[in-house]
Amino acid sequence: MLAQAAGGPLHVGYSPQIFLQEVDNVFLCAYCHGVMCQPVTLSCSSSHKICRHCCTELSKTEPLTCPSCHEPVKTHQLDIPFKTLIDHLTVRCIVCGDWTGPLEAFEQHAECLCPSRVVGCPHPGCSHTCRALELADHMLVCDYRCVPCELACGADVIAKDMQSHLGTTCPRMAIPCTYCTVTLPRGDIPTHLEVCPEMPVDCPVPGCLIRPPRVQLSAHLHDAAVDHVAALTALLRETQAELAAKTTECLQLREDLKRVVASDADTVTVQISSPAAMTPARKPAPLTKRGRPRKERRGKGTPAVEQEEEARVVVPLE
Ligand SMILES: [Zn+2]
Ligand SMILES: [Zn+2]
Ligand SMILES: [Zn+2]
Ligand SMILES: [Zn+2]
Ligand SMILES: [Zn+2]
Ligand SMILES: [Zn+2]
Ligand SMILES: [Zn+2]
To answer: What are the start-end ranges of the zinc fingers (TRAF-type) (predicted)?
Structure first.
């Protein structure tokens, strides 16, 4: 534990309180008054020593002078033998009050081993801090711990999000059907909706916008028979009008085609028996090795249509 003597700079010498024996004045830093950390010997005539960090702090603000004798200091050097003497002094951890040992082992105890050191909960999102010896108890009840779903749906959930998981996504949570009085696990609702008697369904009659509950569909078909006939009649009229328009268009195209044939009869021969005969074009027959179209084999019942294998389209005019 670093001393941070009252009013002094940070990262300074060790508090004399942690040492088991009274500390000789020779080990104290004249700048921070703590037991020297990383002692450096100054180039003053008395070779006074201070903490290395204190030396750096002093150099920042003014030309370095020894805080003991106030002589100007040109150089300073880490004093390894003196540091070893300090490292072997025995200290007690005042945080846990239990541990004693050489100063050189104190830092590891304080940062990694002391049961009373302050630690943070490792669960992501949790900002709880406590003594290391209390951490295990906290982690058992921490809101940010990961726990299996209360209803054993197989999901792992952050403890504080359990209610939200049960309320919105858990497939095992029992919820009421939106339409009827049945209560089922959330995961079974889609299957239930396929048969739920109160769920609204589409009326199968085109043009009818009413969506009766499934259980009332046949009653609706019976009750709305007149409306359904009206809707179907309207639909039929619409379809008939469309068909008439298409037929007119077809006849017009046929007249146009006749005119084209009459004006250039040497090169175009066209065959259309009726508009209904306009079937999708068949694929061209695959070529044989000699480059002629291969004749398709046909079953007994299939009449041969030789025109399709010709390069020209033959259309006799009526
Ligand atoms: Zn110091
Ligand atoms: Zn000095
Ligand atoms: Zn301790
Ligand atoms: Zn926590
Ligand atoms: Zn669940
Ligand atoms: Zn239902
Ligand atoms: Zn209907």
So the answer is: 109-163, 164-208
Residue 198 has pLDDT above 60, yes or no: yes
61 — pLDDT class (breaks 50, 70, 90): confident
CA–centroid distance, residue 7 to ligand 2 (Å):
22
CA of 203 to the centre of ligand 5 (A): 37
The CATH number, out of the four listed (3.30.40.10, 3.40.50.620, 3.40.50.2000, 3.30.870.10), of the domain defined by the range 16-112: 3.30.40.10
The CA distances from residue 227 to 34, 37, 217, 223, in Å, are 100, 98, 15, 9
Sign of CA dihedral 242, 248, 251, 252: negative
* Burial of 274 (C-beta count, 10 Å sphere; 0-12/13-18/19+): exposed
* pLDDT tens per residue across span 77-112: 999 999 999 999 999 999 999 999 999 999 899 999
- Sorted by where each begins, the domain ranges of the chain are 16-112, 200-260
Instruction: For residue 113, give Cα distances in angstroms to 37, 89, 117, 139, 279.
Output: 21, 20, 8, 19, 88
pLDDT in tens, 147-184: 999 999 999 999 999 999 999 999 999 999 999 999 99
In the reported structure, the alpha carbon of residue 53 is separated from the centroid of ligand 3 by a whole-number distance in angstroms of 25
pLDDT at 134 over 70: yes
Neighbours of ion ligand 4 (CB under 5 A): 121, 123, 126, 128, 142
